[in-house]
From TrEMBL:
One term of GO molecular function: DNA-binding transcription factor activity
Pfam family, one: Trp_repressor
Protein name, entry field: Transcriptional regulator
Species the sequence originates in: Vagococcus vulneris
Length: 100
C-alpha cells in the first residue's frame, strides 16, 4: 500500500477520527473543515471516475460527465486494477444499503 509511506501514528489517528463520524451531517461538516473546495472536487471527481469505470463506461463518456483528464482517468483505472479493491467494496456497500 502506498499509504504505508506516511507516518503510522499520523495516518492511524486520522482514520480513527474518520471512523468516529456518526452520520452524513458530521461527514459534511468534517470534510468541509478539512478540505478546500478544490481539494474536495478532486476527491469527488476521482471517486466518480472510479464508479464510472466500474460500470464499464468509456474514457470519452467519463470525460464528458466529469471533465477529468485522461491522465486522471488512467490513474484511477490503474488503482482499480492494481489497488486494494476499495472503490468496488464501498460502491457495493452503498448499492446494497440503498436497496434496503
Amino acid at each position: 500500500m502506498r499509504i504505508n509511506q506516511l507516518p503510522d501514528r499520523d495516518i492511524h489517528r486520522f482514520f480513527q477520527c474518520v471512523l468516529q463520524l456518526d452520520n452524513m451531517d458530521e461527514c459534511y461538516a468534517f470534510f468541509d473543515d478539512l478540505m478546500t473546495l478544490k481539494e474536495m472536487k478532486v476527491f469527488i471527481t476521482r471517486f466518480t471516475v472510479a464508479e464510472m469505470l466500474l460500470e464499464g463506461k468509456t474514457y470519452q463518456e467519463i470525460r464528458e460527465v466529469t471533465q477529468a483528464s485522461t491522465a486522471i482517468i488512467s490513474r484511477v483505472k490503474r488503482s482499480i486494477e492494481e489497488g486494494n479493491d476499495s472503490y468496488k467494496i464501498l460502491l457495493d456497500r452503498v448499492k446494497k444499503y440503498n436497496e434496503e
